[in-house]
Batch of 3 targets.
Target 1
Amino acid sequence: MERLLYRAISLAAGLLVLLSLVVVPLGTVQSASIRAAVQSPQTIDVRFKEYRLENGLRVLLSEDHHAPTYSICVTYNVGSRDEMPGRTGFAHLFEHMMFQGSTNVGKGEHFILVLNNGGSANGTTNADRTNYFQTLPANQLELGVFLEADRMRSLNITQANLDNQRQTVQEERRQSYDNRPYGKTYEAVIDTAYNNFAYKHSTIGSMEDLNAATLEDTAEFFRTYYAPNNAVLSLVGAFDTEVALELIKKYFEKISSQPAPPVPDVSEPPQQAERRKTIEDPFAQTPRIDIVYKVPAGNTADSYALRVLGQVLSGGLSSRLYQKFVKEKELALSISAGPDERRGPSLFWVSVMVRPGVNLAELEKLVYEELERIKIEAVMDWELDKIRMQLRRQRAQSFYSTRSRANSLGYYAVYYDDPGLINSAQEKILRVSKADIQRVARSYFKETNRTVVTTLPKAKAAAPTATINR
């Protein structure tokens, strides 16, 4: 089965790459063979088995022997949305703390053990979850399971580890937010667009809150959220399912569960009027305009339609926004659009890197005109066909990686309590119709539902602005 899956992935990816070169805006003239290939492609499924340990740990196993490797991912149901005012940055801080050693693994040894065995490891944090993943040779299955279990059971939470990782995170903030072009833009957008603290603050946290973090606060955060009943372990690759399950039970089942953590309130009151903010950036070389609209949570009918709408607007060189603003009118250096999908209220984002000298107000008006056009004029068949093939190709290519599949299983299990979405979500997207795209554009692209943040270069002489030739 596994080798057949690999062959199916290879054939599907190759076919979709070929087809994507053929689908171009030819009006209504398309060959029947191309249209048939678009509408009836070979499907690719990730087969997995699900188990639940006595302590509540959810286990997802997907056996695949096409290569002698495996990936293990542990996804914790905690992100920056779980933080309280005055304690921002804790979720991301733990992404670093989790590599500082545990009872049976010395400080820094986690990476050494993985790298010395030819593997790779990392972790990521966002608003809705934190995950840790590593890829290792198949003959090191026990090592990966042991490493994840040991730090879940007995992480070394010491003052020394807290102090040095706090400094590491603060330096990361300086490099990624405070001292880089447009580093403050994202924070300005979410702070302006959201009312609820859960999504109003960034994952990196504030310097003040990081400085105020105590060892007791840190230990309590770990006890609350880093428990087996608040996690999903996904394993994909070359292993025997029964052997893997026994190893997981051996190392994880004796870890004590904890009371279920509180579920954060992420609800948002209806937005009544447009919100605007302008910030100055000493590192920016050219203006940037970010326009966001409030949209529903992920895994809804509207969220799938919004994903496709994002591709219509900016999915590649033939997309509407790129063609109009970058290629034809040469008003933007780059432009992107699409949903920032969350478990709660999300944002549909349009971001424009403006060419120097362009009149910002006129450019912004033209962007709104293009968004209005979606409401009035149905998407062309060739556009929808191109997007469907792009999405299929992206999925097929991503499935080469065991890590991608392991992370996806954990993502769908934690976000939506449905790991089966790894197979069904794609079909939901592909069923989006032209009418669905217009419906969501009409529902959410409203002046009263938008937030606009303009980032301007700081301390530079004002250059004359050019009038846009319509």
Target 2
Amino acid sequence: MSGYAYGQWLRALATLGEGGRGAAAKARKWRAVLDGISAGRVTVGSRTPVSGVPPWVTVEVVHGGFATGRLLAEQPLTGHDRARLRAATPGSTERERQNLHFLSDDGQAELLEALKSGTYRIDLPEEAAIPVAVALFAAGRDQEAFDLLEVIWPWIDRLKFTPTFDSIAVPSGDAVRVRSVGSVMNTLKQVTVPAQIAAMRETLTVWNPRYERLVALWARTVDGALPSLRDGAVVGGWPCTRWPDDWAEQRDRWLADLPGPVTGRHAHPRSNFARLHAALLLCPRDSSDLGPRQVGWIRRALANALTTPRPVEPVESSTYADIAARMVERLRAYPLHGGIPAVEPITADLDQPAHLVTKLSRALDAPAAELVRRGVLTSSEAIAAVLPQRTSRLAAGRIADPVLATLHERTYTAFRDRRSLLLLNLAKQVQFTELPWVVADPEPRPDDGSARRALRETVDLVLAAFPHTITPNPLVTELRALARLADLDLPLVEEVAADIFMGRFTDKWRAAAVVASRTMRDTLYAHYYDLPTSWPTPFADLCRDRALAAGAATSYVARNGAVLEQSQILTTHNLAVLVDALDLAPWLRVRGPDLARRALDWIARRASQRSPDRHAALVQVKNIAYAWRQAVFFLSFCPPDEQRALVQRLADQPELTHVVRGLEYVIAGGRFGAAGSAPGGGRRLVGWVEQPAYWPGVSRR
């Protein structure tokens, strides 16, 4: 494991040399991981990775689930925090003094007032600990408060157990928000005009008008017809043959109007602008200081300019940076830590480039479905990131005490921002209920059906918006939380990384597979993937046997990947469990054809793309196989004629010839052989395979 961390550190250092954004911080974090592992302070694969630190403490985690050893709630006081401390407050550290202040009579009164008014922010779960204790004291639940303080007391001098006092606006109902107003403002402030566009605009708006005036100034010195070009030769009158009375004054005014050194194409020393400008500097009153050759160059420059007039080039009234700056100004009317109810007041009377409106819409308080429609939520992972806001409100709605309910809501949202750890030996991530300050309500309100509706709406949205992707782990976590609120005990399973798989599964995998076999019995999915109808064989053994029969690779990681893929096939990776629990079959019989079509279209696009290297090709094959499994599942809810018509959409994809033949064979009533082959060269599509010929034109190279 430390080898991976070492490689990441080297990559961060290489990026540092290239001037990559955030490279220095990334390199420091990976160095901290390596130092922690080397010193024995950090244990990779443990749910308590930092020595001596309990699981409820939030640790800093970098990509891949590695802990750096830093405790995120161990942070210095801000200047505002220090100003609040009273000289008489006890404590061995500033942090302890602040924590103890809010346990004093005055501090509790101050904190309780903020809790009642909602004027506080929980950025890390630990920041809710003392507020919960104070709320318990206020509710007469003293023993629970003392028990909580006893647990956190060893850390009272190090960790921030108090919130940030701030006026914030949180979404309500089914609305969610991707980013706060302040965060979106910072993003919009980073919108700049590319150097090439800036130079072009400067030429058009600054130098071209001055060029026109410069040509006109010299044209006034021509007696007779103005110079022009005829067959490449200069014809017409000569400059410097007459000098209007105000010419010197106009010349001085033009020079005084120059904003600085000439830039852009006009700065070239052989440009018309440069020649006329240089001559102007030598003629304060007339051309007495010019030689015949120099006058000839003035005549040539005038002929060039007057014979082929420059087309008028349009100038956009506002750049993207201008529009973004206007948006930022209008956003100042909203709370920095809140959201916006609509984008129209911000975009009114402005050009509305789609990418800037999308950036702005990240601060919009709206249902997830609306944010998907606006292109703000572009993946299942993005939906999973905002879903805790809704889950937390549903959970808080079952708590009678309004202060504890709001605390619960904000603590849950902060907790879901914790990054997952890399875990081994079937260890579970730290659960929200393991936080000592997550207390049970003595008289919880019964569920009124809201949680089940939210679960159903979320599943419908994810399947409809992203039919080609499996449920990512963060989404599985939230679906499980919603299911529990709805009093549903669902065996939802996570995706396991092939490089850390230990060869074992917990009981929920087998439970999910049993549901899948029952729910999908006698469907296209069951026939295509040969689902078992009974389960005498242990789940892990069956996955290994099926992977070997399909032609699993011999390398450790690829062999693990093949076993894990079979686990996803047998469980449908949560699809069957959700269909069964939420009675989605009628909905899928209506929506299934569209979902299958879109999944197959994604496969066709992806299969036609060339991968830049072998690793990218392997990832491509895996993702296509996973999307194929989704498509087969949706096809299972379509009539046979529609199944055949939808699969025919891929008939002109040479990369998919073998797997299309295989699927058509099963639709027609056939069954694959033990190794997943069918007559006519048909194949069952799986992603972790050894044979190079399996993916002609797409496979391992």
Target 3
Amino acid sequence: MEDEKRSLLNRNKIKMTSNEDEQQFSNYLEVVKSFAKITYQSVYVIDYEEMKFEYVSDNPLFLAGYSSEEVLKMGYEFYYNNVPEDDLELLNIINDLGFDFYDKLPQSDERKLYSISYDFHLKGKYKKPVLINHKLTPLFLTSNASLWKSLCLVSVSNNQTAGNVTINKQGSDLLWKLDVPRRVWIAENKSKLKEKELEILRLYAQGLTINQIAGKIFVSPDTVKYYRKKIFESFGVKNFTEALAFATYNKII
């Protein structure tokens, strides 16, 4: 446990910020709070200079039965007290390899284009641990491009197990998946759909049946089934519900 604490607390510890760094923001937390009001996701902000949570939203999932004030006060201790030991070890690996990846990027604002996503269990006051998806992206960098403050979003995971670690870059056709046992990042092309496949998936999201979708886009039900099969193959899923979750999660739809 102490090793995990040292890694999480020290891997990206910011020792000092300059006046130039401080000028990046004024009331940015008001923007974050406004965003938290209109999203179903839990939202919080990490400050790597103070190594604390700077803001925690009232959205209940991440709170795990606590109040936002309690989680804000606990800061990193919240992880140590509410994440199962196996998953805490996983977070330690993700933290180290994530910052290894980040440190190899150009020392510029380009680093803000990257985000990391992964799943882990959160127990808190829940009767059983809940598998959550956790996304993190830079809010502010220091003058030497170190990660100073990050925005974190938490939602229920679409997966069955912890892990599923990916790094995305905005505007890139590539994503990087972490092979946890080998501890290496593997670049892959992002999944894409053709326009007709996207249209069918959007109509399914509206609650339409295969026959209703066929009528909407003036094709036969068999044609809809053909496109459905192509969607499932592209995403590696077994049904429309999984396909819609995958498309939403990966910002395809």
